[in-house]
Amino acid sequence: MREKRVPGQAEEMKKTLGGLEVFAISSGAMISSGLFILPALVYRIGGPAIVLAYLLAAVLVVPAMLSKAELATAMPKAGGVYFFIHRSLGPLFGTFAGFASWFSLSLKSAFALLGIGIFLAPLFPLSPHSFKLIAIACTLFFAFLNLVSVKESGRFMVVLVFAMLGILLYYGVSGLEWVDVHRFVPFRPHGWPSLFTVAGMIFISFGGLTKIASVAEEVRNPGRTIPRGMFSAFIVVTVVYVLTVFVTVGLLDGTDLAATLTPLSLAAAGYAGRTGFILLAAAAMLAFITTGNAGLMAASRSPLAMSRDSLLPAVLARVNLRFKTPGVSIAITTVFMIAAITFLDLEGLVKVASTMKLILFASVNISVIFMRESKLVSYKPAYNAPLYPYLQIVGTLIYILLIVEMGITPLLITLGFFALSLFWYLIYSRSRNRRQSALIHVVERVTAREMRSSGLGEELRDILIARDEIVEDRFDRIIKQAEIIDDREVQDLNGLFDLLAGVFATKCRLSREEFRALLERREAESTTAIHAGLAIPHIIVPGSARFEIVVVRSRKGISFGTDIPPVHVVFALAGSQDERNFHLQALMAIAQIVQNHEFAKNWLKASDAEELRNLILLAQRARKGTV
Hints:
627 residues, Mannitol-specific EII, Chain A, two-stranded antiparallel ribbon, 64% helix
């Protein structure tokens, strides 16, 4: 397979995932051991109250889900949580986030695939060694599927997830009539504290919900598709969790439930015989397969995104020209998963991976706060998380408490992992990565204006252009090159015309005096202050194929006359006679831009000239490909 990387340019992934695929990836990544094995383990701690604990765990994941939905719609790029944390908190934390995300997703996916053997063992005589061979075979199959086509992998997920959900809903509804309510008494045998302990253990089962953010770059219309897919998956899976756990607790005696590793299958066998056992075992295997596939897909995007930012060698960012998939990154992730399945004690490592996942969840909430407080006009999520910043603060505190609940050993291992990430950053990444973060912009807000820079703002602008599939027209190209002046001194027409004449004189073959005379003559015909706070001085200049735009912001306001409100926005146009058609198109484009919601307020709030440029380029308007 031929691959190519263009130096300095990120290779684009193909947008092939739609709403169904997003729903399937989010749902399939959630349902695995957390439903098919965990109920038996947590029942020993919480008793029948585990039904309520599943609902509480769903509530706990809401802050991370809403924050990730906002970030994913503002920055739909490969790497998900890595990309968000890198752009908000900087490359050091981004390095840790990238490695932690890859490590935790890969380990959890490997663990899920090993779970297939647990449900095959009662049906076929298999040795523990066979469990590993089955998991490795599944890993290789999913790797091939992801290498060939993300779209086909997504379709595969849709089929498996809907089959699994169908079986689970059938089990939940059909089992209701067999439920013995006496098995729910006493409901909380170990008190309220046990309920919160169990909710913390269950919580990580919902973590797969946000994996879709890692492949956001490959989602069609991500601004709408990602939130809808995540929220619908969250609602459906929460209902399935609570319903099936309620039925399972009501069908099995407490001693039987606490002693099995296949609680749903055992409960189904109680009223549907061996057929019920096989049906729920099949659903469990489907769940482990979907979790493994979604995890491999999501994990492989972290090395890709880190390589694009020069935090890892460039080879990991290669995208196959034919299939538009990150072949090298998928291969590296596959090798790591196979090694984990073959050699590692996954149960212990998965607890470490869960601790890392909680740290990433807390970091995502903090990222939203820094992105919003950066006040970048190009940070424009299609979905805004509600209750800001209280939701993010409360979510962060909850996740910190859950991290503490994980125990000292996973936390110490995670800190060691951070130390290794710091070492890698210092010896490899630091000199290669100069990208800005929202944290820097928050600091810049309280520093001198001349210290400010605009790299992140421009990157976010380009991401939004790609997200909204905006096709650049000639007006956009002129604005990208236009002189944008943020002037605090100009307060009257004389000062404005002096300023414009000096700028235009350097761009066209006329003297300052000639330009000033043209501007004064045009203003004498009728004022160019055409709207409250807006003026568009426009003149015809000699020659042909000439068109220039100069933009001026005046925070104090420029006086165009005693009866005219102060002007804060100036678009000055100078074009030759043969450009009269485009002259009119430019005037229409400006009219649409300034009518955008909150344009005037954001114009005065923008921190510098580049922010003003981004505000113009990202404003909604009709674009013409022929101009």
